[in-house]
Task: structure prediction
Amino acid sequence: MRASVPVKNRRRLLCVFPHYTPAFGTFNHAYRLMKGVRAFMPPQGLLVIAAYMPQAWPVRFIDENIRKATDADFAWADAVLVSGMHVQAAQIHDIAARAHAAGKVVMLGGPSVSASPEMYPDIDYLHIGEIGDATDQLIARLDESVARPSAQLRFETKDRLPLQDFPIPAYDLIPLKSYLMLTLQFSSGCPYLCEFCDIPNLYGRQPRLKTPAQITAELDAMRKQKGHPPVVYFVDDNFIGNRKAAKDMLPHLLAWQKQHDYPLQFACEATLNIAKQPEILKLMRECSFLGIFVGIETPEADALKAMRKSQNVAVPMMESIKTLNDYGLEVTSGIILGLDTDSDDTEVRLKDFIDISRIPMLTINLLQALPKTPLWDRLKLAGRLEDDPTLESNVRFLRPYQEVVSMWRRCIAHANDPERLFARFYHQAMPTIRSGCSRVSTIRWMRPTPIA
Ligand code: B12
Ligand code: SF4
Result:
C-alpha cells in the first residue's frame, strides 16, 4: 500500500542508489561477459520507499550502478532520497554534495544510517529503521516544505509497517534487464544472535512476513518487463527464520511456477540447519531453487561457539553441504578470518575445508566490527576497535596484523586458483543439473555473451 498521509502539494522525488564499492562480491568485472548486465541486484529497500510515496508525487529512480544522476535530474527534483550500506558511505556523501550543489534537500535511509546516523552529519533528514511511522513523518515534512532545514532532523521508526502492507517495489521505474538477478523480500529479521551480525538489532528477532499472494504478485510485476533476468534472489537474511512460514509459502510459489511453465529460478540465504528440513528442501527443488548462500563463517567448531553461531555446530557440516547439493542447490559460503580463536592451524583447516566441501564460491572476509553488534560492544570495551582507513579491518586482531592479512590473501588465492575453482564448480554443477532443476540450466542463468 501507499502512504496514507494526506498531502496538499506535488513533490518531485529523485531516488538515487549509490554505486557499489568495487569488490569481488559484486562481480563488477564479470558484467561484460553477460549481455546487457550493468549491476548486481535491484536495490529493494529504496524501490519499496519509491512505491510507498503518495500517488500524486512523481518519482524518478536512478541506480548509479547503471547510470549516474545528471545535473538535469537534480534540477528536476524537489527532494533527493538516498539509501545504502556502510561500504557505500563515500558515494552517499558524494550524492548528497551533488544534490546540495543543486540546492535540493536530501534524505537518507537504509542499513548504514539506521545503524550509524553519526556518519552522516551532511544529510538534511535521516530516516532510521524500516519503513513505518518515521516515513510518514518524513512525507508530511516534505509536503510542508522542500527547503533545506537549518539543522539536521532525525526520524526514527517506532512503529514498523507490517510486511503484509508493503507495496510492490517500484520495479517499473528501473530497467530490470540491466541486472544480473532480481530481488524479492519474503521476510525481515532473524531469530539468531551471531556476535558479529547487526541484523537482529536492525530488523528484529521475530521474522515478519509477506503473504504468499504478495510474493506471486511481485513475480507477476517483474515478469511484465521483457528481458528480465531469469533468477530471483530472496534477500531475506534467513529464508528459514520462520520455518513454518517458508513451508507454507513454497507450495504457492510452486503453483505459480507450474502455471507459468517455470519461467524463473531462485536463490536465497539460510542457516546451515536448513539441511535438517527435507520437506522444505524438497519443495525448494520443485520450485527450481538453484543456489543458496550459507554463512558457514568457519569450519572450526570452537570458533563457531565463540561467535555464538552454534546453529552451525548443531549439524555435521560436510554432510549438510552434501545434502544441499543433493537437493540441487549450489552452495555459496561466507568465511571469516581474523577471529580471536584463529590458531596456527586455521589456514590449513580452511584450505582443507574448501577442497573437501567443494563449495565453488566463497566470500572470504576479514572480521569487521559493525556498529550495533555485540562484537562492536565487546571490542570497544577491550579497546580493540581501530579507526585507520589504511588497515584492512577495524578490528585489532589477537594475532599480528600482517600475519592475519597474509593468511587471508593466501586463502583467497587458494580458493580462486582457476583449476581448483573450475573443478569445484564442475562438481557442484553436476547434482544441480541432474536434480529436479533439469528443466533450466545454469548456462541460461549466466547468459554468456562472446567477447568481441
Ligand atoms: C541484497 C544484499 C546485498 C546486495 C546489494 C543489492 C542492492 N542493490 O541493494 C549485494 C550482494 C551487492 C550486497 C553486497 C554487500 N553487502 Co549486503 N545485503 C543485502 C541484504 C541481504 C538484503 C538487502 C535488501 O534488499 N533488504 C531488504 C530491504 C527492504 O531492506 P532495506 O534495504 O533495509 O530497506 C528498508 C529500510 O532500510 C528503509 N530504507 C531503505 N532505504 C531507504 C531510503 C530512504 C530515503 C528511506 C526514507 C528509507 C529507506 O526502508 C526499507 C523498507 O523497510 C542485506 C540484509 C538485509 N536484511 O537488508 C545485506 C546488507 C545490506 N549487506 C551488508 C554488507 C556488509 C554487504 C557487503 C559489505 C558484504 C561483504 N562483506 O562483502 C557487500 C558490499 C558490496 C559493495 N562492495 O558495495 C550489510 C550492511 C551493514 C550496514 N549496516 O551497512 C547488510 C545489512 C547485511 C549484514 N548485516 O551483514 N548486499
Ligand atoms: S543467522 Fe545470519 S542473519 Fe541471523 S544473526 Fe546469524 S549471521 Fe545474522
Summary: The chain is about 35% helix and 15% strand. The chain has two domains: 13-156, 181-445.
